[in-house]
């Protein structure tokens, strides 16, 4: 009798530790959506440091780059630097952005040549995006208006707006905006669009 009672207790304990069991009372885990996107570029004035074989160090950060321009130590050059971002979207549509450090990609003998490349990697466009809606908040007798937009990437952003824009967008389904498309240096078709302002 004692053996059967012990067996029943063990069986019940095994069921309760199984998360798929009806006895499990824990919350169900949800997975976040994670993607890596190109985030920004910049052109920086730099100095050639040590020459190491066919490579060179770039000061002040001592990054190693191919010495494609046959530069000498001490030469002033311009470098293109890149930053990407890890975009984490939770199940309740909240976004978290984790930015990488700047990485040097390429060197140029002058600023104008570098600026030409930069112009092709960061492109400004005007387009219509989906308007999720507008809403008001009130705190200490002050009212603020916001618009929620859905970007081409699927991410939703919140932007503060004035009363006139709130009225204009209150019943709209789309909004005309200016976006900055940041293209991946290694894969130009991979791009991320960032909100840069209202088109009208």
Characterization of the model:
By secondary structure, the chain is an alpha+beta fold. Helices cover 17% and strands 52% of the residues. It has 3 helices and 11 strands, in the order H-E-E-E-E-E-E-H-E-E-E-H-E-E. It has helices spanning 2-17, 111-121, 163-169, and strands at 33-52, 55-59, 63-66, 76-89, 95-99, 103-108, 122-139, 142-150, 156-161, 174-183, 191-198. The strands form 2 sheets. Strands 1, 2, 3, 4, 5 and 6 form a 6-stranded antiparallel sheet that branches. A 5-stranded antiparallel sheet has the order 9-8-7-10-11. The termini are far apart. Residues 1-29 have low confidence and may be disordered.
Highlighted features:
single chain; 200 residues; alpha+beta; 6-stranded antiparallel β-sheet; 5-stranded antiparallel β-sheet; elongated
């Amino acid at each position: 009798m004692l053996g059967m009672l012990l067996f029943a207790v063990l069986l019940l304990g095994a069921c309760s530790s199984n998360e798929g069991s009806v006895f499990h009372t824990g919350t169900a885990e949800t997975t976040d959506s994670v993607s890596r996107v190109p985030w920004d570029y910049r052109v920086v004035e730099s100095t050639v440091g040590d020459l190491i074989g066919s490579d060179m160090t770039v000061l002040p950060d001592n990054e190693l780059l191919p010495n494609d321009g046959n530069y000498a130590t001490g030469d002033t050059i311009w470098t293109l630097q890149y930053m990407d971002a890890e975009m984490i979207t939770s199940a309740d549509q909240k976004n978290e952005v984790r930015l990488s450090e700047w990485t040097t990609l390429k060197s140029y003998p002058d600023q104008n040549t570098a600026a030409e490349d930069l112009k092709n990697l960061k492109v400004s466009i005007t387009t219509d995006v989906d308007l999720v809606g507008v809403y008001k908040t009130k705190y200490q007798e002050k009212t603020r208006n916001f618009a929620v937009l859905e970007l081409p990437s699927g991410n939703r952003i919140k932007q503060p707006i004035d009363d006139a824009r709130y009225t204009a967008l209150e019943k709209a389904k789309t909004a005309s905006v200016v976006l900055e498309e940041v293209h991946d240096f290694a894969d130009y078709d991979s791009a991320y669009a960032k909100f840069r302002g209202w088109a009208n």
